[in-house]
Amino acid sequence: MVLEFQIRKVRTLVNPKLAFYNIFPRQLDDEQPFLFPLTNSKVLPDPSKFFSENLLSSPYSFCQNFVLNDGNIQEYIHPYLIKPSDSSVSLCYPSLFVSSHSIHQVFTPDLTISTPKDSQSRHVISSFSDFSVTLEFPSSNLTFFLVRGSPYVTVSLSQHESLSITSIHKISSFSSNASPNKYTLQLENGQKWLIYTSSPTIFSFSFDMKLAFSNISSGEAPVMVRIAVMPDLSSENEAVLDRYSSCYPLSGDALFTKPYCVEYKWQKKGLGNLLMLAHPLHLQLLSKDEGNVSVLKHFKYRSIDGDLVGVVGDSWMLEAEHVPVTWHSTRGVNQAYYDEIKQALCRDVGALCSSKIANTSSSCYGKSIARAARFAMIAEEVGFLDLISLVKKFLKETIQPWLDGTFRENGFLYEKQRGGLITKSGADSSGAECGFGVYNLHHVQLGNFVYGIAVLAKIDPNWVRSIGQKHIHSWKIS
């Protein structure tokens, strides 16, 4: 039998961005594949109630809080924390809470956008992409285009429909500007929010601190309402928000079109150029030679990721330095340290014992496997080949039971509802194994096993031939 190694990317429906890679020899004969035992998870939520009828696949990545459980957990869609509830969406420009051991964002519903109708309908997701999610409230004909990195939140208001805006803070002032399409809202906490409409609307400001906007247009086109907080009170920043308020993003994707590059591309509507926000890593990688982009270095929003800086342009090319993927260190090891490294290897490899791994979760077990595999590669690089046989023995004893289903304390199972791998422990508890049973951190936990398998295949080809004929070629999802 001829075996050909390949890497296969297996995406989970809940979160394809947290994909994992399976290394398996592709079988070229008719041998039946080995299948992991089937299971029905007791802890997976059913997000389908939040899907519109025209949604072809399940949402993932940053918007999963909008579909899990009650769908009312806030998500960070830079620069805002956004929380949907029954018939409303709350926006927060978060402050940061910093202590000696952690930093987190504090959610406060600075603005809540809802419909005046007496409705308790929940939202549905009608579309999504790498950087965007579209929320709809069918009973009120409100549509929210939520795109990561947009300084504005965009709401579509259908003909003859209305929306209201309230705040947990006292409203200090509300005024319409010289333009019939711009309004200014000042809150008692010092925040200043700008509201733009694509066409004139009727607005009212009641004593219960509620703003109402109504679409009175005679045409069928919806009014686009754009809401943005001022990052500070400078007139220069307000002028920037005014200038780019007529162009809004509908969706955004990450495209891998060139080696070591990723293109961020947004679908936009409206007039003029698109204003988005970049965090520090984006700015470090942003190519000035490709795409018509300009950086507004003085236009900044704060965030937990560092300052978000304005970038004008609907297509960014991010270029990373080429980092070679090798078994050994990329710069080599100074031979003056060989003896010290060998002493450390003797100590660490000598302590390897598969029966002494007390924690049998896939996370801890996988870390032990990856750690041992790295010992083998370090030993190979410094020429300490005598130790590799000990690592080989440990890897066989720890990896093979997980592949063939003979590891009694735990094991991989095929979960039918989402179509992916979970573990015995994860099938019964959403908190077990760092949420492995609800498809959390699959890329990390399964990555440890994949790395261990790859190293074992390198140092022991005979094991590959032996186990491959039985199991490895079938370590795939059927």
UniProtKB/TrEMBL annotation:
Glycosyl hydrolase family 81 N-terminal domain mapped to chain residues: 61-327
GO biological-process terms attached to the record: cell wall organization; polysaccharide catabolic process
GO molecular function term, any single one: glucan endo-1,3-beta-D-glucosidase activity
Family annotation (Gene3D superfamilies): Golgi alpha-mannosidase II, domain 4
Record's catalysed reaction(s): Hydrolysis of (1->3)-beta-D-glucosidic linkages in (1->3)-beta-D-glucans
Enzyme class, spelled out: hydrolase
Keyword flag Cell wall biogenesis/degradation: yes
EC nos: 3.2.1.39
Family: Belongs to the glycosyl hydrolase 81 family.
Protein name: glucan endo-1,3-beta-D-glucosidase
